[in-house]
Amino acid sequence: MDELRELIIEKVKNKKMTFAEFMNLALYHPQYGYYQKENPFGMQGSFYTSVDASESFGRSLARGFLKAINELDLEPVLCEMGAGSGMLANDILNFYKDEEPQFYEKIEYIIIEKSEYLIDKQKELLKAHEGKISWHSFKELRDFDGVFFSNELVDAFPVHRIINISGELKELYVIYHDDKLQFYPDDFSTEELKEYINRLNIKLVDKQIADINLDAVKWIRDLGKKINKGLVVTIDYGFEAKQLYAPFRMDGTVTCYFKHTQNNDFFERVGYQDITAFVDFSALMEYGKESGLDVVNFEPQWLFLLQSGILDEIKYAESDLHKARIRSLIIPEGGFGTNFNVLIQSKGVKIPENFFYKKRSTELFNELSKIYSEI
Ligand SMILES: C[S@@+](CC[C@H](N)C(=O)[O-])C[C@H]1O[C@@H](n2cnc3c(N)ncnc32)[C@H](O)[C@@H]1O
């Protein structure tokens, strides 16, 4: 049970490690990493995502993506990165198969997934859609035309932790001291942290911790270069930098989930619990610009789902339970309505002024008040 912890202890006895290195091992160590061995999703796992809440999530995404492909004249290609259990791909492809058979004929679905264990799971679940889906590495992706999307991918990238100690910024490293793994502040491991803090104008008060996702910077820069024409849709929990690094978030946002219970015992159950941090969407917008990604909209998930046609799902939901699950995706209080946001970026296409992903909440308000009276 403690193999990974022991392995990390051996490493840090010789040399301190950044929290990003620690998190990368805890989640993705090829043998013992959290995403490499047990099914982390749903009831038996550590956490739920919107995908587990209801198939209406995937069906709504499917509606929106089809509309975007038609309106922007994109190729019928979807690329999902970080596909987890494969359920989202399944919900999307089932929707097209059942309700848009002509589009289903043409569609090409690409999955980019880091975990070998999850790739096997996805292949098993998605057997019915054989021939439609292919698995590729991120490196292989190029000249992409279509819709590239992810749900809760970026929050699973390793983060660096920095702290303001009496006006001086330090990085928190993982060390082994007094027979335990613990944090230790020292100089930054890379200049990129300083560049990020300056560029996003992050100001921390004394003793405040911030979690910095440098992998997200690299990812969005690289991704932009790989897109020829299309949309990049990033769904995750997180905020813009000003809100994310506000002084009331003294301890940063990185946290752990073990069997649906949140904790901050980072050095316990190593490889057996999820570790995740809120996404800094400002960084995705800022660094995405470098490789030609323009911001179409940054908005709450509930609004994005309304734009994507989730109201149609409610109309056809057969049971109260199904309606309640859909509601958990869009009500602003609690559930997936609160901290979840969506960033839509584009490259190589002209976005019409009245593009449906830009529709404002006021325009949707009448429809929204109607569902509140129905559910
Ligand atoms: C929190 S899970 C979300 C899964 C799924 N999208 C959902 O919403 O249920 C994160 C997923 O991203 C994958 N992942 C993390 N880093 C990745 C990377 N660099 N390349 C591809 N997949 C990655 C993980 O293996 C896992 O499948």
UniProtKB/TrEMBL annotation:
Keywords recorded for this protein, A-Z: Methyltransferase, Transferase
GO MF, any single term: protein-arginine omega-N symmetric methyltransferase activity
Pfam families xrefs: Methyltransf_28 (PF02636)
Biological processes per GO annotation: methylation
InterPro entries: NDUFAF7, NDUFAF7_sf, SAM-dependent_MTases_sf
SUPFAM superfamilies given in the database record: S-adenosyl-L-methionine-dependent methyltransferases
Protein name listed in UniProt: SAM-dependent methyltransferase
